[in-house]
Each structure stands twice: as C-alpha cells, then as structure tokens.
Specification:
Layout lengths: L1 H26 L25 H12 L2 E6 L2 E6 L2 H10 L6 E2 L21 H14 L5 H19 L9 H17 L8 H17 L2 H8 L1 H4 L5 H25 L9 H12 L9 H32 L1 H14 L15 H14 L8 E2 L4 E3 L2 E3 L4 E4 L2 H4 L42 H18 E3 L14 E2 L3 E2 L7 E3 L4
Parallel strand pairs: 2-7
Antiparallel strand pairs: 1-2, 3-4, 4-7, 5-6, 8-11, 9-10
This protein binds protoporphyrin IX containing FE.
Protoporphyrin IX containing FE binds next to helix 12 and helix 16.
Length: 495
C-alpha cells in the first residue's frame, strides 16, 4: 500500500514538473511569432507530415503568416516563409542568425569544420577556407580548367556504356568528386577506382538517409533514439568513415609537406596549423582540418552530382528542350571544342535550363537550419538565443508571382521575351548571407560545363514514353532526392 502511495506521489510530482516546464515554455515565449500550440514532449510534431516536411511548413505559413514558431519536440524553431522574410533574416540579420542548428547525425563535426560547426571556430575556419579556396581558383580560371580536364573522362565513361541502359549515379558522381578532390588533395579517381566508389557510396547513402522520416525524427529526439537500432546509426558510422578517410589524407600530406611549396588545400591548412602551434589555445587542430575537408568533400560532390542526375532525368522527359539545347550547343560550341565558361554569354537557353533545373528540383527546400546566436528583436518579436531558425528556400523558388506555374518545368522562367537570360533575385538555391554556400561559383560552373559537354556528345534516349517519366523525388527531408532511374545515351553523329 505504501509502495503504491509513493508511486502515485512520484507520478503526480513528475506530471506537475512537466506541466510547469510546458507552462514556463509558453509563458517565456509570449513575444515569439505566432504558431500552433505545442504539446508536452512532442511539441508540434502532429502538425508535420514527415514524408514532406517542407509542404507542411507551407501549409502552416498559410495559416500563421510568413514568420511562425514551431516546437520540434522541445526545440523552439522559427520558420521564415516567402521572399521578404527569408531575405530579411539572411541579409539584414546576417550576424544574429548566423549560428548552425544542430544536425545530430553530424555530432562528430560539432564545433569543427564549416557546415555543421556552431562553435566559436566556425567564423575563422570559414574565412580561412574561403581565402585558400580562392588561391586554388574557386570562381577563377583554375577551376574552369579543372572541370574541362575532367570532361573527357566523363564523356569516355558515357561512351563505354555503348548505348546500354546504366545507373548514372556514380558515373555522374565521379566528375564533381574529382574536381573537388583535385582542389583538396591534388588527386583524382579513375572511374573504376574502388576507394572513389566507396567514398561516393557513403556520400550518396548519407544524403539519402538524411532525407528520410527516421533521420528527421532522430534529429528531434536524439537522446531517446540514440540507443535504438536504425538508420541513424548507419549515417553516424558513415560520417566517421568519411572523416577517417580525410584524416588519413591529412596525415599523408603532413608527412610529405614542403612548407615552401603547398600542393593543395590540405597543405595550406596544415601550414596554417603550424603557424598556430605556439598560440595558447590553438583553434586550428588536426581534427578541425579533417572535418573541414570532409565538409567540402561531401558538399562539393553530392549536391552537384544529384543536380546533374536529376537534370538528365528532367531532360529525358522533355525531348523538345533537349533538342533546343543541342541546337544551341552546335551553333555556339560546335562538335569538338570542350565547353568554356565564356560560352555561357552566348548560350542563354542552356543558362536558363540549368537555373530552371536547380529551381525545379529545389535540392535543399528548407535550407540548412540556422540558429540565433543572441536574443534578437525581429519584426516586433523577440527570438531568444538558441532558437533554431529555418529560412525556407522553396518558398522563394516556388513563388507563383515570380515564377508563374511554379510546379511546371519551364526554362522560360529565366528567359525574357527576346530569349535573353533573365535574372531573378528569388533564385536563392545557394542561400545568402553569412552562411551562403561556399561552393556556389564552383557548382554553377560545373553544372553548365558538364551538362553542355554531355549534350554536345550524346542524345538522351528515354527507356519509357517521356510522358510516363515520373519526376517526383523519392524522399523529401533534408534534401529532395531524385527517383532511381536508368539512363541510356547514344553518341551524336559528327561528334
Ligand atoms: C548544386 C550545388 C549546391 C547547392 C544547391 C548548395 C546549396 C547550399 C546551401 C543551401 C547551403 C546552406 C546555406 C545556409 O546555411 O544558409 C550550403 C552550404 C554549404 N555549401 Fe553548398 N551547395 C552546392 C554545392 C556546393 C559545393 C560544390 C561546395 C564545395 C566546394 C559546397 C560547400 C558548402 C559548404 C562548406 C557549406 C556550409 C557553409 C557554412 O555553414 O558556412 N556546396 N550549400
């Protein structure tokens, strides 16, 4: 009887504590943007469809407006929807919201590297990396040459398929993988290299798994789900394997480093580390270098490769668009010269198609999560330090005023009446502000040059009636992943 009494008292005590905590949460949030009422423990999870979170956010924006509050479990989150609110947060409040919301599967990169770093070393690591990347030709001639050097390998790999259907995932992956690998390690992988394939498989699997409902749930309840079996363990294991690979490359580089002649990005970071060695609290450690390189390797490969893969699927569905591209390529580049960046000025249709592919596939619909690094007054609300901030990108890319019929793939979204390329400030696939994508210039060059080269040499042959090609992504969480498909390419005559 006494035991029962104690149990009941304990339960009542726990329930009271929980109610107090919820009440405190609500009371302390009276200056937050509006949003649905959160339940204890789960917050607003019932308002979200985990198969398509971005769509749920759009629905909530229709109800609560362009700035609203959500609780993902107990994590306070402010969502920005639409051009004005997103741009305001990213550009006018670029410092206040420049933190990174935690992605728990990448805990190994916490306070290290660039992408997942929410610690004090992020600013210096990013600044230093950008300056070294500039020295190695980001956005300059050196990168164009790097991509052009890779083109014959890519077209040769396509030619070897001899008109037979093949899974394009890794063939297309080697191209951006080799470009970033050359910058980072002064190394390229043959298209049959097993280590290159393994690395790509890890990137590809992680990108896919991060977009599944399970991993989104894991990001909300990491402490409850940590001990359960499931795909979060696989992602964490893959993150470790990728980091061990980059750590091994860094070690190799250190052993053969010539301080007078840095060979690549890794050597340059190692030289910075040597400068730091005698400071009291060196922030630039071996581990930070390995994480920085892993971030650039992953982001530099998987995003561009997925865009190319999705892009070719879209072009198979619209043969009339492919035909216009062939016509433009034949007129401007001809059959034998490797495409160059200067061609872009004379190829407004290709430029528009590349932009429309990126808009339409909407690779990172909810961006990467930001975080408020201080209490911030925004549009009359107070957003406390530590709040996760989500500047959605799909709300700009699918704005129906800027892009009429946004659900349709139409290169005309980026062309004016006279067929010239039309810029749109809503095209923010690389985000903006302090956290803007580090590889924007490189990715844009790669997409234009690789797609031009593929279509210069090959016709795409759909294996089903183009009308039946389904463009719906296979998963929509962190990223929108294209459905798996087989590609078939036929060499063009005269090339
Ligand atoms: C189609 C290709 C790409 C797309 C769509 C893309 C998109 C993005 C987006 C939306 C972000 C988040 C920005 C934010 O938090 O506000 C980001 C961050 C980042 N991207 Fe990219 N990216 C692409 C290619 C690349 C490439 C080629 C590289 C490497 C050379 C790269 C490196 C990074 C890094 C390091 C960050 C983290 C920046 C930070 O947290 O400070 N990305 N990217």
């Amino acid at each position: 009887m006494a035991a029962l009494g104690i149990t009941v008292a304990l339960l009542v005590w726990m329930a009271t504590l929980m109610l107090i905590s919820v009440w405190k949460q609500i009371y302390s949030s009276w200056k937050l943007p509006p949003g649905p009422f959160p339940l204890p423990i789960i917050g607003n999870l019932l308002q979200l469809d985990f198969k398509n979170v971005p769509k749920s956010l759009t629905k909530l924006a229709e109800r609560y407006g362009p700035v609203f509050t959500l609780y993902l479990g107990s994590q306070r989150t402010v969502v920005l929807h639409g051009y004005k609110a997103v741009k305001e947060v990213l550009l006018d409040y670029k410092n206040e919201f420049s933190g990174r919301g935690e992605i728990y599967a990448f805990a190994a990169h916490k306070e290290k590297g660039i992408t997942f770093n929410n610690g004090p070393s992020w600013k210096d690591t990013r600044r230093l990396s950008l300056s070294i990347l500039r020295d190695y030709g980001m956005g300059k001639l050196a990168n164009e040459e790097r991509i052009q050097r890779e083109v014959p390998f890519l077209t040769e790999a396509f030619r070897k398929t001899q008109g037979q259907p093949f899974d394009p995932t890794f063939v297309l992956g080697y191209a951006p993988c080799n470009v970033i690998s050359d910058i980072l390690f002064h190394k390229r992988f043959d298209y049959t290299d097993q280590t290159g394939l393994r690395i790509q498989k890890l990137f590809n699997e992680n990108f896919h798994l991060l977009s599944t409902s399970w991993l989104q749930l894991y990001n909300i309840f990491p402490s409850y789900m940590r001990y359960l079996p499931g795909n979060h363990r696989k992602v964490i294991k893959n993150v470790y394997e990728i980091k061990s690979y980059t750590a091994a490359r860094v070690k190799e580089h250190e052993e053969s480093l010539d301080p007078n002649c840095p060979r690549d990005f890794t050597d340059s970071l190692l030289l910075e580390m040597r400068k730091e060695r005698y400071t009291k609290e060196p922030w630039f450690t071996f581990d930070n270098i390995a994480a920085t390189i892993a971030d650039l390797f992953f982001a530099g490969t998987e995003t561009t490769s997925t865009t190319l893969r999705y892009g070719l699927l879209i072009l198979m569905k619209y043969p009339e668009i492919e035909e216009k591209l062939h016509e433009e390529i034949d007129r401007v580049i001809g059959p034998s010269r490797i495409p160059a960046i200067k061609d872009r000025l004379e190829m407004p249709y290709m430029d528009a198609v590349v932009h429309e592919i990126q808009r339409f596939i909407d690779l990172l619909p909810s961006n990467l999560p930001h975080e408020a690094i201080q209490d911030t007054m925004f549009r009359g609300y107070v957003i406390p330090k530590g709040t996760v901030v989500v500047p959605t990108l799909d709300s700009l890319l699918f704005d129906n005023q800027e892009f009429p019929d946004p659900e349709k793939f139409m290169p005309e979204h980026f062309l004016n009446e006279s067929g010239k390329f039309k810029y749109s400030d809503y095209f923010k696939v690389f985000s903006a502000g302090k956290r803007v994508c580090v590889g924007e210039g490189l990715a844009r060059m790669e997409l234009f040059l690789f797609l031009s080269a593929i279509l210069q040499h090959f016709n795409l042959k759909p294996l089903v009636d183009p009308k039946d090609i389904d463009l719906s992504p296979s998963t929509i969480g962190f990223a929108k992943i294209p459905p798996r498909y087989k590609l078939c390419v036929i060499p063009r005559s005269g090339v």
